[in-house]
Write a structure and sequence with these properties.
Helices cover about 5% and strands about 45% of the residues. The chain is mainly beta and about 180 residues long.
């Protein structure tokens, strides 16, 4: 399994107890979608290594207590702390209409209803209070906050994200 074929699920935050359990941080919108998780890929020295889940117990704020098969001691688990977790992209359900996964639109062109082509989406900055779309507009950074009514259309075929940015926002960056 290659990272290009996966999406980032979160990371192993810390040990939980002394019998090989760990605490995951699930960096996802709804952690409860993963309460039946059976396997994850852990980035161990640059290689995605499959680990099978013996038990998972979801906690508040995106955390989960997890027991892996074959990880029986504190020493075994310690080697996994601060390692990133991945799942295959093919496991994600297809979204439609104005919905998209953050990783999905990276590299898409951003087109504003008033301004036209703005540039290429670099990343979605997932701030808890105010997520942002980071766009490279010919070497200039443009940050567009997710506000109600922002997304007009996701064109997966042409790799464009159509938005209606707040009036004057893009001009502040580009004029």
């Amino acid at each position: 399994m290659q990272k290009a074929d996966c999406y980032h699920l979160g990371y192993i935050a810390k040990l939980h107890g002394f019998k090989g359990e760990v605490s995951f941080f699930l960096d996802v919108t709804d952690p409860f979608e993963y309460e039946r998780l059976k396997q994850v890929y852990v980035d161990v020295n640059g290689f995605l290594t499959p680990f099978f889940i013996q038990s998972i117990n979801l906690r508040p704020k995106g955390f989960a207590t997890v027991k892996f098969e074959g990880v029986e001691s504190e020493n075994d688990a310690q080697a996994l702390v601060r390692k990133n977790l991945y799942l295959p992209l093919v496991d994600l359900p297809q979204l439609s209409d104005k919905n998209f996964y953050d990783h999905e639109v990276v590299g898409f062109e951003l087109v504003d209803a008033s301004h036209g082509l703005v540039g290429v989406i670099q990343q979605i900055i997932d701030l808890p209070v105010n997520p942002l779309i980071q766009v490279d507009a010919k070497g200039k950074e443009v940050l567009i906050p997710f506000v109600k009514g922002l997304i007009q259309r996701v064109d997966r075929e042409n790799k464009t994200l159509h938005v209606q940015a707040p009036e004057g926002l893009i001009g502040i960056y580009l004029d």
